[in-house]
Amino acid sequence: MGKLLLAIVIGLVGAVIVHIAVIFAMPLVAGNNAWARFSNLGPMYQIVGVEPLRSAGTDAIAPALGSDRQDFAFVDPAFVTASCRFSVAKGPVRILANYDDSPFWSASIYDRRGDTLYSINDRSAVDGVFNLLVGSREQIVEFNANLGPDPEETAIPVELDISEGYMTIRVLVDEESKRPSARAFVNSLQCEPVEPAVASRPDNRDS
Q1: How many Cβ atoms sit within 10 Å of the Cβ of residue 183?
Q2: Residue 20 domain-assigned (yes or no)
Q3: Could you tell me if residue 207 is inside a domain?
Q4: Which residue ranges does the record assign to the DUF1254 domain (predicted)?
Q5: How many domains, in total, are found in the chain?
Q6: What is the biggest distance separating any 2 CA atoms in the chain, rounded to whole angstroms?
Q7: Is the model's pTM score more than 0.85?
């Protein structure tokens, strides 16, 4: 009986120690998540590129060792990867690429904790164009109502119940000769807040 009680006490003490350790570790973990690391690369709405972690050797593509842009061990060297942080607290955000000859790409939107909220690739996009309108349901409805019907509009509405998030896009480089094309695609990316266009109204003045 005594051994059982001792085991229970040791288990409880161990659980308390682990709980305290987790509490103290939370600020460190939160400060080292993807959102925090992307914030070190650039301000809100800026497109920032990241590179795969390289431990040795010289590479004209990768940044110098120790760079913040190498702080993403999950980046696949077969892709050109970029991201942007955004806020929809005051209105929707447009994320698009102005590049027609796009290779294979896939993009995801995450909340600040890194939970995936939305994913898309070139095969599921409208005509293969990367063009997203991100915001709450109310913001997107208001934007479309003020903009009016536009048959050439290819933006895909992405309704999110968040105030801040980030987008990460990965562009495939299946051959090294295609890397410039992938870079050009990433360089054409835009991530910027938009305001609902004021729908033009006819002048009702008496002639």
Answers
A1: 16
A2: no
A3: no
A4: 68-193
A5: 1
A6: 101
A7: no
